Amino acid sequence: MLGISPVLQRALTFTNVATLIPISAFQTPEQIRAAGREQLVTHLRRHRAVNAVKVGDQALAAAAEQDLTLPRQDTGAALAGELVTHLLQLHQRMRDADKANKAAFSDHPQAGIIRSLPGMGALAAAEFIVAVGDLSTFASPDHLAAYAGLAPVARDSGKRVANLRRPQRYNRRLRHVFHMSSLSTLRMNGPSRDYYQRKRAEGRKHQQALIALARRRVDVLWALLRDNRCFQLQPPSTTPARHHQPPRALTTAIETRPVGRCTLAPWPRASSTVCGTHGGDGSEARRVAAGAETLIASLVWWATGRQGYPCMRVRG
Length: 316
Hints:
Elements: H1 6-11, H2 17-25, H3 29-46, H4 52-64, H5 73-106, H6 111-116, H7 122-132, H8 141-147, E1 153-154, E2 164-165, H9 172-184, H10 191-201, H11 206-227, E3 258-259, E4 262-263, H12 283-303
Antiparallel strand pairs: 1-2, 3-4
């Protein structure tokens, strides 16, 4: 625009779409003055420009300051109008693509759950789905955090242990999603900002606290998708836990197998006469207790390196 109108170049900010719209139809100061305020504002509103009246007044005021016609002005004006038209068309195509992506993302069954997490906009949520794909491929949130590059990896050598470093192989797009979504939550009050401030109070730098926040948000989003519920500030209500039922392996019979010098007695099956509830003398309860002691001793034997305790085999 310097070769056409230095005044327009100084008055308007051409990084804004609203300032490019009048240049697509009126490039020179003479054309802007000839169009007038009403036609200029109508053209801006037709293309849905923000602050159409303000931009129109700025263009008219700048055009009124220049009376000179620069050499080869018409050639530069035609080229500028063509370039601005292509930029506006590209901007419209980007807007249409964003709308199509949002429409496709809204059809995802867990779109509302991902969007409910603060900081996860439509674009970030769509990038998360594209980067992760099937969430069942990750066994735990730790695996998802490692895939996003938010979990440190060990770099031990010999006696040098607990030497952690940033991973080199991870999904950059997924890390960008959690990084930007975590950064956006710092502008609003909430649990994310409180967690960030707590990490800063512990002495961590900004980037370290932000990575810690992103790692925590991985766990939160994983839990939301696992439980199929939306994010809420208050923790979900939990129902009272039922009576604990022992695993099936603890109620199966144990084979009598000679191991070394010891031979284990068979495990008595549990029955309704435990603790003499049906008028028994309690012998069944004593047998169950003895079997439980044997099981505990065997577990301790396995945990202590198979020394000093008998062993057992469970038949399921």
